[in-house]
Amino acid sequence: MSKVLVIAEHLDGKLNSSTAKTVSAAAALNPEAIDVAVLAADPATVAAQAARIAGVTRVLTVANAANVHAVAQVLAPQVAALAAGYSHVFAPSTTFGKDLLPCVAALLGVNQVSDLMAVEGEHTFKRPIYAGNAVVTVQAPAGQVVVATVRTASWPEAAQGGNAAIEAASVDAALPTHTRYVGLAAGSSDRPDLQSARRVVSGGRGVGSAENFAIVYALADKLGAAVGASRAAVDAGYCPNEMQVGQTGKIIAPELYVAVGISGAIQHLTGIKDAGTIVAINKDAEAPIFEIADIGLVGDLFTLLPELEAALA
Ligand code: FAD
Questions:
Q1: I need a labelling partner for 87 at 20 to 30 A (CA). Which of 1, 52, 123, 280 fits?
Q2: Number of structural domains the chain divides into
Q3: Residue 174 domain-assigned (yes or no)
Q4: Which residues are CB-neighbours of 260 under 8 A, at least 6 positions away?
Q5: What is the pTM of this model?
């Protein structure tokens, strides 16, 4: 029977929903136990949130002033030490997990399984390759710990309602001094987080300028949606890099995705493969985005968006 250690992703005392999705992937193994590790300067608040995730056996807290910021090189030796006795170590395939788990895998001397999208067996998993155009089945060697990042867009959040025990773990690990936290440069926004939002409105090159993006923000505000962008819009300077959706941006799975002035290049579609309802607004009726859209509006976005906004009001 397997025992899974899930590494919690959190920021400012709030557990990221990617953790509950990772627990769902862990549950697909039908394991003997799923423990969630919370590494923080003061893990109590986050641990209480993790304990409420259904299916979690124990929450292990590692309190250390060095864990005040999620620096992979600092967290990795602690996670590697915690991994003893576990058959699997999982973390979400977000920036956090993609940064941390390769360090953990290297310390444990194993290869990492990336972007786990389905569990076929204790050591057999499915993951996307070629920008999501193909799915490959990978087999991790039996007899050694499986270190895997979990493709969050492929898994629902595990339900709430759990009541796991919270235990302080003591970790004996030498922390490196070669990597230190300097600062976090992130855009501040009152809008929902792009990666976990239930609704997303994205703008593309067709929006035309940074100023014109106001029209995309206005519709998003009406819908209570996060705002994303195509790479062309980011490269043209209409919006910051962290808004990019797609192969080299964020992979998202909102219930509603509205693509405005986006042609639907394969690298963009990779990022929205698991979205629920896709709405496309484009003046070119031949745009590839209409091939995957559930609802398509052919027309000028500068006419259609204000009309939509008015209808929503
Ligand atoms: P365009 O393809 O230029 O499309 C603009 C669309 O707007 C057109 O369909 C046009 O008809 C429409 N339009 C114009 N004016 C209006 C108007 N007034 N009203 C309505 N519609 C209008 N792209 C991503 O998005 N994300 C990625 O992560 C990503 N990663 C990549 C990785 C690699 C290795 C490579 C090679 C490319 C990647 N790309 C990515 C780029 C991708 O190939 C496309 O170039 C990009 O997605 C195009 O963005 P776009 O649809 O906004 O622009």
A1: 52
A2: 2
A3: no
A4: 201, 202, 203, 204, 206, 207, 216, 219, 281, 301, 305
A5: 0.84
Whole-number pLDDT of residue 171:
94
- Backbone phi, psi, residue 307, to 5°: -65, -45
Ligand 1 pocket: which residues have CB below 6 Å?
204-206, 230-233, 244-249, 261-263, 265, 267-268, 271, 282-284, 287, 300-302
Ligand 1 centre to CA of 250 (Å) is: 15
**What integer pLDDT is reported at residue 196 of this predicted model?**
84
224 and 131 together in one domain: no
Task: Say whether both 164 and 210 belong to one domain.
Answer: no
289 Cα nearest atom in ligand 1: 9
What is the rounded average pLDDT of the residues 283-306?
A: 97
* Substitution site in 194, 212, 231, 300 for ligand 1 pocket (most atoms within 8 Å of beta carbon): 231
Q: How many CB atoms lie within 10 A of CB 41?
A: 11
Q: Does residue 154 belong to any structural domain of this protein?
A: yes
- The mean per-residue pLDDT over the stretch 184-202 comes to 85
* Residue 61 lies inside a defined structural domain of this protein: yes
